[in-house]
Amino acid sequence: xxxxxxxxxxxxxHSEDVYRLNxxxxxxxxxxxxxxxxxxxxxxxxxxxxxxRLSDFVLLQHLDLQMHVITGDSVGAGxxxxxxxxxxxxxxxxxMDADDQFQFVGSLLEFFNVAKMGNHDMIIARxxxxxxxxxxxxxxxxxxxxxxxxxxxxxxxxxLARIGLKWHPNLRIYEDxxxxxxxxxxxxxxxxxDSVVYTRMYNATSTVRKDDYWFERQHHTWADENRYxxxxxRFHRPERMLSDLNYYLVDVYFRRQVNASEDDALxxxxxxxxxxxxxxxWAGYTPELATYAESLQDREDKYKAFSLxxxxxxxxxxxxxxxx
Length: 324
Prior knowledge:
Elements: E1 5-13, H1 18-29, E2 39-46, E3 65-70, H2 77-87, E4 90-95, E5 101-102, H3 107-115, E6 122-133, E7 136-141, E8 153-156, H4 157-163, H5 175-186, E9 190-200, H6 210-213, H7 219-236, H8 241-258, H9 264-277, H10 287-299, H11 311-319
C-alpha cells in the first residue's frame, strides 16, 4: 500500500483548551532534523468541552494538521484514537495525549532514523512520567520494553491490519493495556530505542488519577479487558492462553487486596463471564499457579505486603461457576 506520510500523530482531546493544545502541538512543530512533509497530525475532539478551530494554530507553520470532532457523548480515548486511525494517511501511527508533550526537539528524529533503515511492526522508545506527591514533582523513566502505555511508540499500519487489531469499543479504561499489550506481544519485529522521547505530564484530573485513583478500583473492567485479551489470543496465539489466564487470576487476586473493588457485584459478574468463556482451558489451583503467584509477588513491590493464603479459596470460588 502506498502511504502519503511516514507517520500520523493522533491526539484525542476532550476538556483541554486551546492553550493546552498549543503546548502539545508546539512540541511537534519544534522538532528538528525531520521532514515535516512526512508527518500529519490529527486532532480528534472527543465531544470537546471548548470549541477549537484550525485557525487557532496558524502559527504552527510546520504542521499538516487535520481535525475531526466527535459530537454527542464522549466515547473515550480509545475510540477517539480509532477515529483518528481511520483517517490516517501514514505508514506508522503515533499516539499522544493532549496534555503531554515530546521530551526534546530530537524526539521524532529518533524514530525517523530507525524507520529509514527499514520497516518494523513497532518502534518503542522510553517516556518520562511526571508525578506529584507531598508537594513535590517527581519523574520516573519507563522501562526499556514498556508494553502497557501508548506513549513513545510507532505502530505499523500494515502490521495492525495484518493482525486485525483496533481499539476495543468497550474499554474506556485499560484500553492501552489491551491495544499496546496485544500489539507488542504478537509483534515479531519490534525495534527498541533506548532514549526518552516523550513526557507524560502530571494531570490530577486525568482518567488514571482522578477521584483518588478511581480506575484502580474498577476490577470489573480489568476482568473484561482480560476477557477481550483472551478472545484475541484464542485466534492468534492459543498456546499462551493458559499462562495468560493464570496471570489474570493471580493479578486480580492481588489487585482486590490492594484496592477494594468499586462494585464487588459487577466484578464477580465480569469475572464469571471470563471463567465460563475459558472453561476449556481452566486448570484450577495447581502447583504451577501457586509458583507463578509467588514469582509475581516477588516482581511486584505493590503486592509484597499481601498474603497468598486466600488464593486457593479465590480459585475455588471461581471454579464454582463451572459447576453451577
